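dumping this here so i dont lose it again. seq + smiles for nicotinamide-adenine-dinucleotide
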Amino acid sequence: MSLGGKAAIVTGAAGGIGRASARLLAVRGASVVVADMNPDVGATADLIREAGGQAEAVVCDCATAAGVEAVIASVIASFGRLDILHANAGISGPLVPSLTTGAAEFAEILRINLIGPWLAITAALPHLGAGASIICTASVAGVRAGAGGIPYSASKAGVINLVQTTANALAGTGIRVNAVAPGLIETPMTAPLYAAARERGREDRIGQLNPLRRGGEAEEVAEVVAFLASDAASYVNGQVLVVDGGLSSSLPFAPRPAGQ
Ligand SMILES: NC(=O)c1ccc[n+]([C@@H]2O[C@H](COP(=O)([O-])OP(=O)(O)OC[C@H]3O[C@@H](n4cnc5c(N)ncnc54)[C@H](O)[C@@H]3O)[C@@H](O)[C@H]2O)c1
């Protein structure tokens, strides 16, 4: 699982899953460029450096060509290579499905969640060689309904297809492309949901729909990202690894009362 000698990019790394991923990639030995439109991404680089790792931060919109080019330029200037791309930046949009979402709002969610990873992949490709690993953050919301708004779910379904089609388009290169699909994870994105549950004294209800009966931690997603980034996953390609406590493994049903 060692990533020694490798250089990585993590987008959306100001907090949450991106920060956890960047920190773990660095612990495993990778030099990391962390990028986010939120300037707090500088604190992620500080945390990595304080722990003895190598990191640079770039503040930019990771869903523009100029933004991703700046991130690529930083990793090449700082570390001279690129081996791992974790395209993770995303926004949720409205959490509840609505049939009145306007086209502009829909387009913005697709721009950040789906076109952003595509731009990052295409900008990274000239610098990637055999053994390189691309990981995109999808979501269980992209697998089926029930975990987000319509544009968000559609964008994440797009991410799943993006890694499948890109893995195949890269046949023969030795570059692997996979996605991680988290379930409910406590991060700044889900903070309002957790806060509302805590306010109502319903924290114990969080994550009760999955068989592990709890929400997940960003570090639990980072472990899967670090695996996909490593040579330990050398034959894993074009796949979606779901990290949801088992939520998506079952169809909804009403459990029978005990004794019936
Ligand atoms: N938290 C969950 O339950 C959950 C579940 C499934 C998938 N995800 C996905 O995980 C990823 C990380 O989310 P998180 O939960 O850590 O929340 P988060 O809000 O902490 O992380 C998302 C980060 O992306 C950044 N970002 C958004 N748009 C950007 C842009 N255009 N350019 C640069 N940075 C941008 C944000 O500033 C933020 O730091 C997202 O893609 C999200 O959709 C999260």
